[in-house]
Amino acid sequence: MSAGRKILIYPVILHPEDQGYSVEIPDIDHGTWTQGETMKDALLMAQDAIGIMLEDKTEYPQATKIEDIKVKDEDIKTVVYIDMEEYRRNNPKTVRKNVTVPEYLVVLGKKQNLNFSAILTEALKNKLEL
Question: Does the pTM exceed 0.90?
Answer without folding.
Answer: no
